[in-house]
């Protein structure tokens, strides 16, 4: 499949970043323009959290959470324009974005056994696609460290809190309190940083700071980095 100057080939684009940095919306837009698949790994952790809460699993019980994740009947679409997430026969696409999930997801994301199970599932999805934009917190370093494009998308704390507040208000129809935003953004990042480093770029990972960029400028910057890698690969193959 072709999209403008971008030609479909085996290409993995890995994007990490903290809450509210714009990963999901930017990566969806980039994947759409590229004609690539899209994987929101954060949605997988949210779905696992929804399932654990639905099954009344004690989130402090590492083994119980890992067992629940191992049997998790999860299906996640990779269509950037139509994300659907189901658990069994239940569509949880909207439910996993509820504040109660946001405030509990770190308990699952920092569970070492559960995290490894989800990482294995993410690697399978990426490998089966071959042409995909995958975003999360450890894609550039753990899930797909050999990705051709590796980017850390970041933004100031002020920008991230503002963006997440607007996003949550759009999704729920109600404004979030400052305290709730602190819990869902900054405190969650602090907890999750115990399992992965998504605030500093690892060697070979480019930094894209979107603090002072518009949404379209951020998308264009990511696409420019991807195009540069594609052009470099084309030149190397021609030699």
TrEMBL record:
It is found in: Cytoplasm. The keyword Signal does not apply. Its main location: cytoplasm. It catalyses: CMP + ATP = CDP + ADP; dCMP + ATP = dCDP + ADP. Its EC number is 2.7.4.25. ATP binds at residues 17-25. This is Cytidylate kinase. The lineage of its organism: Bacteria, Bacillati, Actinomycetota, Actinomycetes, Micrococcales. It is an enzyme of class 2 (transferase). Belongs to the cytidylate kinase family. Type 1 subfamily. The keyword ATP-binding applies. InterPro entries: Cytidylate_kin, Cytidylate_kinase_dom, P-loop_NTPase. Keywords: ATP-binding, Cytoplasm, Kinase, Nucleotide-binding, Transferase. Residues 13-226 form the Cytidylate kinase domain.
């Amino acid at each position: 499949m072709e999209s403008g100057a971008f030609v479909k080939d085996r290409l993995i684009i890995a994007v990490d970043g903290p809450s509210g940095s714009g990963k999901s919306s930017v990566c969806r837009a980039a994947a759409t323009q590229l004609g690539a698949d899209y994987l929101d790994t954060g949605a997988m952790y949210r779905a696992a959290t929804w399932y654990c809460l639905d099954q009344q699993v004690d989130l402090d019980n590492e083994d119980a959470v890992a067992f629940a994740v191992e049997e998790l009947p999860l299906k996640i679409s990779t269509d950037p324009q139509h994300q659907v997430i189901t658990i069994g026969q239940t569509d949880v696409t909207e439910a996993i974005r509820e504040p109660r999930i946001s405030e509990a997801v770190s308990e699952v994301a920092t569970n070492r056994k559960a995290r490894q199970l989800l990482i294995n599932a993410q690697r399978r999805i990426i490998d089966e696609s071959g042409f995909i934009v995958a975003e999360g917190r450890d894609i550039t370093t753990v899930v797909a460290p050999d990705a051709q494009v590796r980017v850390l998308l970041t933004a100031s704390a002020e920008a991230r809190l503002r963006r997440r507040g607007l996003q949550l208000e759009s999704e729920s129809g109600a404004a979030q309190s400052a305290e709730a935003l602190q819990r869902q953004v900054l405190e969650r990042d602090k907890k999750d940083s115990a399992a992965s480093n998504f605030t500093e770029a690892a060697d070979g990972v480019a930094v894209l700071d979107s603090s002072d960029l518009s949404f379209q400028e951020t998308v264009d910057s990511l696409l420019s980095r991807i195009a540069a890698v594609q052009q470099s690969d084309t030149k190397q193959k021609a030699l």
